[in-house]
Structures are given as structure tokens and as C-alpha cells.
Amino acid sequence: MLIITGIIAGVVALFMFGIHWGFRAPRQIEQVTPQNLGFAFEQIWIPSVANKRLFGWFLPAGNATQTLVILHGWGSNAELMLPIAAPFRQAGLNVLLFDARNHGQSDAHSFSSLPRFAEDLESALAWLHANHPAACEKLVVLGHSVGAGAVLLAASRRTDIATVISVSAFAHPEWVMRRYLQTVHLPNILIRIINRYVQWVIGHRFAAIAPLNSVCQIDCPILLVHGVDDQVVPLTDAHAIVSHCPQARLTLLEIPDAGHASVDKIEEHAPALLAFLREAGFRLS
């Protein structure tokens, strides 16, 4: 009996380790800075939860009182979001970019999750309010992928965000998990067990953090940007978000020939993103 119990305990432990190992975020360290794009910047360290620090860059635009805060996606970093940041900085907005925990040059932590990305965004906003209060007259947050889900979640519980730009957001975490786990041909019962375990680890029910539900709690204008050719998070997720909450102030911008990580394609459509901000009351050059 003890042998059987030991074997079962070993299998469970291996199963749990496999989940944590399989869903760890790959870390990429920044190789360039905003100076490579011709922008003056301040390198910063943002205090976050659990005494962790977040690496970031603040790109001031003179005495501008409007600021864009950018949050990258899973396994990405602040540098990889610079192409998106550039047109907003050129239009006269301050820009704050930072690395979430376990990403870029930020501190390591036990695991990464959409709620923890949102926590880090709120830490960045707290830093901005404390260190550049004059730059917080009008705030827009932009996130990509998991970062998009995080900015929507944060905006659903804050009143200081004037506009949200979500790039390649999934509609529901359970859908993402199911799509991924089905690619490794796991049976449905095991997929359900894994989903329940992940919810227990992150401390949140998937439904409570799902972007299609977060948008229903946001009062400000939201721009959903999604690549038509996204194979990681299909365009149908964006359609599901829009149809689930018709009362939300949602605008969907579909980008032709763009996949999940096609930041260059998003950059090409910067005029549409800037036009959206102008309609939301931002003063741009």
C-alpha cells in the first residue's frame, strides 16, 4: 500500500511540475534602448508586489500631460513594443514601457499569469502618478496578448484610464488553454483537471478575468486590434468579445495579413490608432 501511495504521490508531483514547467514564460533581455529610435528616456525601476522590481523606460514628451502605458505579451519585453510606442511618442504623448515580472530585466517570481500582469500594470500606474503626476491628466493603456487581457482587467476596476487599446486579446483563458492542450492531444477530462488546477494556482476563476467579461465593466472607449491571420488567438475571439458585451464602447480594427506577433503590421496602422485617440479626446500633434 505504501508503495502504491508513493507511486501516486510521485505521479501527481510530476504532473504538477510538468504544468508549471510547460507554462513558464521564456525570458528575453533587452538589447537596444529607446535611444536607438532617437528618443530621450529615463531608465526606471518600479516597485511591484511581493517586494519585486519592474524594469522600465519612461519617454517624456516635453511637458505633455497625456501618457501611454504599454504592456507586452507572454515571453516578450519592453524593447519588442518600441515599434508600437514610436508613433505615439512622435504624436506628443509621454510613453511608459516596462517588463512584467519574469520578463525582460524585471525580477523573477514564482509564476506569471494574467492577473499578475494586471498587478504589474497597476504598479506602473502607481509609479507614474507618484513620479510624474502632471503626466497623468489623460491616460491610455495598451497591451498585447496576455498584456491585452491584463490592461482590460485593470481598466475594469480603475477610473483613471481614459482609453484602452487591446492588441490580439483572447476572449477567455479557458479557450486558450483548451486550444493549446488539444494540440498535444490530451483527453478532455485531463484538460478539465489542468484548467481547474491552473485556476487554483493563480487564485482566480477564468471567468472572473476573461476579457469578454472585463470589457463589460469598462466605461471608457476600447479599441480592439486583431490580426486577421492570427493563428494563436483567432479573430473569432475578438468577434466574441464584441458580441458578448454590445453595450461596451468597443471598436474593432481588423489588420489584414497580420498574425499574433505582427507588431510591424500594427505599426503600419498607427494612423488609425491615433485617430481613435483623437476621437476619445486626446490632443495629438
TrEMBL record:
Record field: transmembrane: 6-23
Entry-linked InterPro entries: AB_hydrolase_fold, FrsA_esterase, Hydrolase_4
UniProt key word Glycosyltransferase: no
Domain Serine aminopeptidase S33, residue spans: 64-183
Pfam families: Hydrolase_4
Keywords: Hydrolase, Membrane, Transmembrane, Transmembrane helix
Gene Ontology terms, MF aspect: carboxylic ester hydrolase activity
Domain of life: Bacteria
Protein name listed in UniProt: Lysophospholipase, alpha-beta hydrolase superfamily
Organism: Thiothrix caldifontis
